[in-house]
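A reminder before we start the practical. When you read a complex entry, don't treat the lines as separate problems. The point of joint prediction is that each chain is placed relative to the others, so the output describes one connected object in space. Small molecules and nucleic acid strands, if listed, are placed in the same frame. In the example below there are two entries. Take a minute to note the order of the lines before looking further.
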Amino acid sequence: MSALYLYPVWLRLWHWLNALLFVVLILTGASMHFSGTSWLLPFDTAVPIHNTAGILLTISWISFVIGNLVTPNGRHYHVRFRGLFKRLFAQMTYYGYGIFHNAPHPFHVTENEKLNTLQQLSYIGVMYGLMPLLIISGWSFLYSVYLPETLFGLGTLWVIAMAHLTLAYFLVLFLIVHMYIITTGETLITNLRAMLTGWHRESDHDNCANAARD
Amino acid sequence: MNKHYALNPGTRSGPRTREVWPPWVPHWTLVLMLAVVLMLGLGSPLVGLGAWVVPGPDTAAVAAAEQHDCLRCHGMATMAYRDPETGELVNLSLDKNELAYSVHGKLACSQCHEGGYDQYPHPAELSAAELNCVGCHEDHPENTDRLDFSVISQEYKKSVHATSDDPEAADFNCHSCHDPHVFRASLLGRKIPDIVAYDNQICLSCHEKLRDPLSSSHAWLPNRDKHWAAVRCLDCHTTLNDSDRPVSHEILSAEQSQVNCVNCHSQGQGLLARLYQYRSREDIEKQGFFTKAVYNQAYVVGMSRNPLIDWLALIIIGLTVLVLAGHGYGRYRAYQSLREQQAGTATEGDKS
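Here is the predicted structure of the whole assembly.
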């Protein structure tokens, strides 16, 4: 059994707060977007919760960026371009084919590299691409009166609304895939446990071969 | 009803005939018209109906001739009399052009103003007789396009004009709003502000106090004058109508009227944006800059909806869930096969 301490307390706190905010924002966002649907929250209840969660998400995201700048956790988001496509292809082949044939996992979690290439690129895309755009579009929605009336010849408010909506759908998609992918560790709960305890534990004996045994 | 046609041409006989038919009217036209008159007089239902509905060339000629006859006097701008009881001048003149373009412009006068007009001055009881718009329009629904006059009648009975006990509304009737000699059913093709102005003019002809720029009426309405130039009074002062019928005739009182911006402002992105921006500014002014971030009151339900994005996203999310479920099942099968393989290896190991 090997154990690596990969998730410090601040990161775990951030992660679970972020997860909670994601769920709250999706639920309240859907309640506003599809207002009138019986099983969703009433519109007037959803609005202040969504806005408050959005403000907290902004603070949470800024904390994440600062945390990655001032702690060693940031190294996990430095892309290693050498062999990038090869590693990416290997990971995709594993998820698309090898995993069904009990093939060994092509990636080994280490202290310096806890994310496989596909994970790393996805997280970078989400945390440094979609999230800031979502946050900006959310704040733009609130303070649209300070923005120009048109953007690229289109009504600014419409652009903001469509951007916020599309980004939100992308992040719903990410959340679903993310929740599934974390079950592809050595066991179904290996990765989940690591994000709860901070320790990534794997069997010493050929953990790659057992990667699909979940 | 056909008797109108029998009666009125009859009035042309006698001394006025020469005046009615100018010398340039060919004789065959008179013969043709006489034939039509005779057919109508005999009560042919088919021709009679045609005469009431949309005048054909023959009946149109009769109608035009009859109008010409009446307008000789009523076409004069100064045609009026002083009511002996009230002492007020009663205008009896008609604008020929307005009449020609009006919805009734091709009808013979006698279709509404039944017999007895061959006496001069016309007997007082004739002008006092009530004209029954609904009855006539109900008899000929094919002439009224999308309008069901029995519904209009029901709606009107519930309207503030019919139920109000205000003395000013005592004699309210169809003609209070719809001058039959001027009214146009549709102004299609005209600019919207023109249509709005035409429509609102009908209301403002009685509610003239609203014209006063210092009037506090509608003070709650943002950009009041812009709304008045772009929105018909009826759009707020009638009940909401989901069907494709035109606006309801159930005119609401000020208290009952729509004070719901979203009803109109949710019908287009431009309208939505204008309402959202207005509400946002109000939010910031009333609640303060930071409080607005939490208690944003500006959002209008539906403003972020886009059927294409919604459907595409929901389909992609649904497909992703299906793919992941399939993926999970494949992993489970692989796990089972590994277990079987390990069990087989263990059994072989025990045997050896």
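Discuss with your neighbour: DSSP finds six helices and four strands in chain A. What might explain this?
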